[in-house]
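User: For my dataset I need records formatted as: sequence, then structure tokens, nothing else. Please produce one.
Assistant:
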Amino acid sequence: MQTVATKQMTNLENIRGAIAAKMDSASFSSWIAPLDFQIIDNALVLTAQNQFSADFINSVHRNVLESVASEYGLSLNICVRGVAATIVANDNNVQKYTPAATVSNASAFDAFITSDENEFVVSACRKVASGSVSFSPLFIYGNPGCGKTLLAGCIRDASAGRVVMMTGGGFVAEFTRALRDHNIFAFKDYCRNCDTFILDDVNALAGKRATMDEFMQLLIDLRNAGTNIVLTANTTPNNLTGFDRRTQSLFASGLVADVVAPNENVKRVMLMRAGVNANVAAALSNRIVADGHTVAGVANKIRAYAELMDKTITVDVAERLLVDTLKKTKTPIAMVHDMCDKLGVSYDAVCGAGRSRALVMARQVMMAVLHGATKLSLSEIGGYVGDRDHATVMYGLKQIEKMTASDLVLGAQIKDMIAEYK
């Protein structure tokens, strides 16, 4: 009897190894490794912990499993562990998955101050929160501090039904914890048993193969079930690094919408809502970088100073207090000198009569930047680049417009300089 049992154990280990060799490691560790392996009446019996697992394995991995079983002269039987069984480690009637505690974000859409540029993405978020939508996933992208997490929190708190919201890093940590604690099937069910699934900062999954494979299968299952899916990232799906083309394609298959950084009016309202005096908020709003995190930090610093020092915050006090945060005001002549350094030309040459191609183009770029970053008239702009007349400036702007239509790099450089000097 002992010899037979030993031989059977050896066969089971060999079978496990053969299956692992024919599957990727992530799928094997997630779905096959937790199963109970037995050989009963010339059949390889694989016992799953719940019906969901058995159905998934039967539909996705059965061909591989049958192939290996036949190599050992066995048939295949995939079943679910019964209530009377002695081991019920992953039976969902016994096991309960509890996610790690999370911190709540904004509770309503009125917490997000909408600008004209962001009306589309906010409307899409409201639609998701109101019920089932035809587009899924909703992929929201934008630079840090533009409000992606705030919008995700608004969707969570405004949605009816059960909502699961995780950060990308949180999903990685919870998936790893579930594997370690042998309750991966409960974690899978927890993620799938919802009406809306939100993952904030999908970038955190980049390069983590096992987690990404699990997340991809989760997205497919959720979409097939008609569940609303919301993803956020710092760039478009096609520009995500560390993700294969299939993943990028799935991310982009619903609705992709960008969030624009706070403009001057949004920053002013944010400061006023945080308790900053209206005059101070108006004076500071155009001198704080377009980053919601920075605006919140400025408001916290002003509020803390007022409370600790028991002083009224005036514009002068705020400017002294925030000298390390506020953008320095640039005069047009300072902008021209700065652009001379960036473009590799001398200020004297720009203001001189030289007509070399590189010099003329540098002047025209400066004209375009001054036109976009200031409210100067064309004659005033000409005065800062060597007393050029109105017609010369107009011609230079038209030339830059033609060049940027075909030269995207030049267009991006000019756009960046305009944003820097505004």
